[in-house]
């Protein structure tokens, strides 16, 4: 180079190379030193994500129920001897559940009963949050549901309902699913059920009614404090819902020390578990 001695030029090049090397080494050291901290941060947050569910507030006596109703495309079809599509039959059967709740609340107005309603297809939609029972709000939500369509996101719906149950303020928590098919969207209900059972330590009870689908597809519920009943048509669906809702869920309220008025013949009673049997049909 003109005006720059050769020795000076070489020294300048070597100096630039040394500085570049130092900068590269410094960046490498900083990168390595930051990784353990990031891993510690991730590891520290992992137990919280995997630990026991924490309620939003103090919990007391009472029962909170999240009802999850399948609204996927297959609910447009008829089941068994029914002439109406399954979604109409299922909504009518849930009307019977609400009538049962009306009766229970009338007899025990001071006992906290919270009921929420969700519909699921390719996703989940909260129609009524898990709150103090309101038959009017729930019936209005049932009547306003759209026609079925889309896939079947059972696992997503279960997880969404579980989160709301932990904001309801009661010790007893239930998820009641009415579905006519297998999961097609999101995490599998089996995986979600296992997580709910583990992280709730059995506090969230899971009940399924397999409507016009093989109940054995949900046999995993037996291992997670849950139960599934089959229903081949509308009559069986109403019977299965009554067995679960009156015979299991509301009956447990009496186990907690709350009783219906003495002498009533319609006091809920616990019936034997029947994991995959439609009520009214004898086992072979």
Task: Tell me the layout of helices and strands.
Layout: H1 6-50, E1 60-70, H2 86-107, E2 113-120, E3 124-132, H3 135-143, H4 154-165, E4 170-179, H5 189-200, E5 204-211, E6 226-231, H6 234-255
Parallel strand pairs: 1-2, 1-4, 4-5, 5-6
Antiparallel strand pairs: 2-3
Helix pairs in contact: 2-3, 2-6, 4-5
Question: How would you sum up this structure in a few lines?
Answer:
The chain has 284 residues and is α/β, with parallel strands linked by helices.
Assembly level:
single chain
Which runs of at least 5 residues are low in confidence (pLDDT < 50)?
28-48, 258-284
What can be said about the biggest beta sheet? 6 strands, mixed
What is the terminal separation in angstroms?
A: 101 Å
The fraction of residues assigned to DSSP E strands is 15-25%
Radius of gyration: 28 Å
Note the run of SSEs as H and E. HEHEEHHEHEEH
CATH superfamily of the largest domain: von Willebrand factor, type A domain
The number of helical runs is 6
Annotation keywords:
284 residues; alpha/beta; Rossmann fold; 6-stranded mixed β-sheet; 43% helix; disordered C terminus
Q: What would you note in describing this structure?
A:
By secondary structure, this protein is of the alpha/beta class. The protein folds into two domains: 1-50; 61-255, Rossmann fold. 43% of the residues lie in helices and 18% in strands. The protein contains six helices and six strands, in the order αβαββααβαββα. It has helices at 6-50, 86-107, 135-143, 154-165, 189-200, 234-255, and strands spanning 60-70, 113-120, 124-132, 170-179, 204-211, 226-231. A six-stranded mixed sheet has the order 3-2-1-4-5-6, with helices on both faces. Helix 2 (86-107) links the parallel strand 1 and strand 2. The termini are far apart.
